[in-house]
Amino acid sequence: MSAALWSFADSEAPARRLASELGLPWHPVSVRQFPDGESLVRVEPHVCDVAVLYRSLDDPNAKLVELLLAASALRDARIRKVVLVAPYLAYMRQDMAFHPGEAVSQRVMGKMIAQHFDGLVTVDPHLHRVSTLGEVVAGIETLCLSAAPALVDALRTHVTPDTVLIGPDEESHQWVSQFAEALNLQSLVGRKRRDGDRSVAIELAGIEQVAGRPIVLVDDLISSGGTLLRCASLLAAAGASRIEVVATHCLATEDDLARLHNAGIARIRASDAVPGPVATVPLAAVIKKALTDSTLLQGW
Ligand code: R5P
Q: Is the CB of 223 within 6 Å of ligand 1?
């Protein structure tokens, strides 16, 4: 059995880290943009049994077509098994039609991945009303990893015993409780009502306990940053001495990050699932372990 790893330029740094952890050769997927917007995708030729194709799927509308073209080019190169490593898996939040006529994007995405790949590895996908990734991406081997242990390690030497961990909403409870147990810290979990893409209302029972204490906000995903912005304003008003954030995925733009810093958030740490200025916690070791413990790198 032989394997190799390919990635697009936008994921090159974390993909190379993973290739190096796995001891696999890394190859580029190059893209040339035609004037009409179409993409010419080319995978560098390499003979092997298993191809690991690495691309995180933030900015998914721009990335998905190229990803499918790359998978097809790998199969044309007679590679029989193509495994997708997409540390951030987009379109997972729309898991039902909330209003008549809406597409259920999670279901469409799951079917498309199962059709084009033989395996999928992802990290902390936003699964709310389904409990396993296998229900979304059926019929292929899937590995659903968590960034929590790597993020806990990044915090371990840094937090003081009086730190309070805060989860903004009920969905964050699963992460906050893991962090609280591993770091032996107090935690509070809020209740969130979403009023718009960037507008949320948050209730945080027990918020008076944060006065004079450092806070770490814990969430799976920073999208527009609206949730953290609201939390930061409540926590600052309640007298928190310092506010930091730790999250698996940070999709926020530079402007959104500037707004968060201006709102008093001193530091944001995220995993490198989505490359960017705050993606300081590498996941290569976590992904390598999961891949080597599975059968995904074995040929047919
Ligand atoms: C929602 O349930 C997630 O865990 C995040 O809290 C949410 O996606 C963050 O979105 P935004 O940054 O746009 O408020």
A: yes
15-47: pLDDT as tens digits: 999 999 999 999 999 999 999 999 999 999 999
User: For strand 214-222 and strand 39-43, is the pairing parallel, antiparallel, or unpaired?
Assistant: unpaired
Q: Is the pLDDT of residue 1 over 80?
A: no
Q: How far is CA 162 from the centre of its chain?
A: 29
Burial of 28 (0-12, 13-18, 19+ CB in 10 A): middle
Of ligand 1's listed atoms, the one at least distance from the Cα of 227 is 14
The reply to whether ligand 1 has any atom less than 6 angstroms from the CB of 226 is yes
Question: Which residue from 199, 227, 274 has its CB within 8 A of the most atoms of ligand 1, so it is best to mutate?
Answer: 227
Report the separation in Å between the CA atom of 223 and the middle of ligand 1, taken as the mean of its atom positions: 6
